[in-house]
Design a protein that fits this description.
This protein is mainly alpha-helical. The protein is about 70% helix and about 0% strand. A hairpin with a 2-residue loop joins β1 and β2. α5 packs antiparallel against α6, α7 runs antiparallel to α13 and α11 packs antiparallel against α12. The longest helix has about 35 residues. The chain is globular. The N terminus is likely disordered.
């Protein structure tokens, strides 16, 4: 009875092998960065300390997100272009709604003319997924004493250190489902739930601030806006459910990545908002308020005719004429007859 099932499962072995081969370079990079930052943080906390490995994972996340900044900028520009083009897309839908082929061709033409790419908004996430999977496999291998990555393979003592390190009483390589409830609620359950909630909240806030602050009212209608609303609730739910299978180290990575995305997007929306959005109105108000507080420099007053005459009569220079000298008039003497009386 189990033979057909095992046979069907064995069909996937070649694909699993191919996937493992593709991920080998990422194993090499991920393990190398982890080992590098482990050597940086070890003098501070100790080689086997959980905070050393946790901060190594955070540092790995920062390196990855810094490398993805050009893609993030491209994603923001493409997403903004898509938002601003939604009114024109709806016009095309009304005009060519009866001809789906013509509608598709005209829509792609519109995107091309405005340098908008519907897939660009998903590009950073798609690039992160292999890195995320490689980190998951490295930490999952550490939990089972299987070294994945060249740098952990040549340093087996680091594999033992990563496998046994703890933070807040929970091992970095443990998962919510792996621990189980044989010993009741443990620190692993509390830490993983806390990280899952933090990861979900940061992802939700990131999507929400994009829709509420940096999208014009016209873009909040239509099929594209409906897709955005679905993603707003579905993506956090997927990560919340799947998070119980992630090791603590992977949850630290994902929460740090979401926190970086939220802060990065907040900065972009605040400093460079899309026109016609609430964020743009707030930016315009801040700009006007800043300009109103600048000191007003009044032009220098032109010299009067009298001051120029005085300056010319005294032979003063043009600089003195610009700053006229005050000349006091002497009181006139009274006549001798008046003085005698």
């Amino acid at each position: 009875m189990l033979s057909p099932l095992l046979t069907s499962l064995s069909i996937w072995d070649p694909f699993i092998s191919i996937g493992s081969t593709i991920l080998q370079p990422l194993y090499w990079v991920v393990s190398g960065i982890l080992v590098l930052f482990h050597s940086v943080w070890s003098p501070v906390f100790g080689e086997g300390n959980g905070w050393t490995w946790a901060l190594s994972i955070v540092s790995l996340t920062v390196v990855i997100r810094v490398a993805l900044i050009p893609l993030f900028v491209k994603q923001i520009k493409s997403s903004r272009s898509m938002q601003l083009l939604q009114p024109k897309v709806r016009e095309l839908q009304k005009k060519y709604g009866h001809d789906r082929e013509k509608l598709g061709a005209e829509t792609m033409k519109l995107y091309k003319e405005n340098n908008a790419n519907p897939l660009a908004s998903c590009l950073p996430l798609l690039i992160q997924m292999p890195i995320f999977l490689a980190l998951f496999r490295v930490l999952d291998g550490a939990a089972r004493n299987i070294p994945r990555g060249h740098w952990l393979r040549i340093h087996p003592e680091l594999l033992d250190s990563l496998n046994g390190s703890t933070i807040f009483g929970a091992r970095i390589s443990d998962t919510f489902t792996k621990v189980g409830f044989a010993n009741g609620i443990t620190s692993v359950h509390l830490l993983t739930l806390g990280l899952i909630i933090a990861m979900t909240v940061t992802l939700f806030i990131t999507q929400l601030q994009l829709m509420r602050k940096n999208m014009p009212m016209e873009a909040l209608e239509g099929p594209f806006a409906q897709q955005q609303k679905i993603m707003l609730y579905v993506f956090p739910l997927i990560f919340a459910v799947g998070g119980i299978n992630f090791p603590v180290g992977v949850l630290i990575y994902w929460f740090t990545s979401n926190l970086w995305t939220m802060g990065q997007q907040f900065y972009v929306i605040r400093r460079n908002p899309a026109p016609g959005t609430p964020a743009y109105a707030a930016w315009e108000e801040r700009r006007q308020h800043h300009e109103s507080r600048r000191p007003v420099i009044e032009p220098a007053a032109e010299p009067t005719r009298g001051s120029v005459a005085v300056a010319e009569s005294t032979g003063s220079s043009s600089a003195a004429a610009a700053s006229p000298r005050v000349v006091r008039q002497q009181p006139r003497k009274a006549p001798r007859s008046q003085r005698k009386s």
